[in-house]
Amino acid sequence: MRTILVAGGAGYIGAHQVRYLLDKGYKVVVFDNHSTGHREFIDQRSTFIQGDLMNLADVRKAFSQPIDAVMLFAGFIQAGESVQQPLKYYENNIAGILNMLRVMHEHDVKKLIFSSSAAVYGEPARVPITEDLEQKPVNPYGWTKLMVEQVLRDCDRAHGLKHVSLRYFNAAGAGYGIGEWHEPESHLIPCILHAAKSGNAVKTFGNDYPTPDGTCIRDYIHVLDLVKAHHLALEFLFSHNESRIYNLGSGTGYSVKQVVDMCRQVTGIDIPVEVSPRRPGDPARLVASSEKIAKELGWKPEFGLKDIISSAWDWHKKR
Fold it and tell me: With a cut of 50, which residues of the chain have pLDDT below it?
């Protein structure tokens, strides 16, 4: 039975991943500092170690038992905030990960799944985006992801750290009785659903982008499709021992207005919208090509936008 260390395993995506791995028969060690994760999300079948990536001693505690591979979800994720507080993002999202890599090297653990981001592409020259497109981040969050990808390549060359970097587009939806819960919430779908529950207007940012309806276009992927892709990537590392980079998205883009309209349809509530100026660091259009991971690992998303919103709404109603 292999043991997987899931850093950030009490967060939204990490907690879903922990449950998926446990159901597949893995042993799981959860490492989280609860800065954004939730104790309620920790599965009691896992081993929990409270610690911070910025504390090398904490990271070493997570390796008190043999670890076969690491999944790295921990990190700050708000692109807009990263523009306002770049040092916070560079310190945590890079220096903290360097601590993890250092301790992995000490214990000769050479397999890692890294949560990267579509933010590495910045304003893409074309859509759908393929993995070989030039990476030009437009915010510090994107730069932290791209810099870590480079560190991983260097560690691969230096001491054989085999890794899969998964460039997410917009993870959303709910499963396993858990859902998206950030404080403050910045992601579009949960913000819209909070507005549906409260009766307040949802704030959107910008209606003058070069898109058909003037609002940003994004590619949404169900969190259950996402964790399935992580598992396939993990099995690939164990079977092939080769490093890869993959996009994870549906290949279909939806504008902010289209997402609001779908939320209205699912909830049956005429959710009001308050349009604010653009946020710094927001590209106009991000849509993935996931053909590479489909061809090499056999992954394809099972859930569409309506499924994503319906599952999220079911969870929000029960909170």
Answer: none
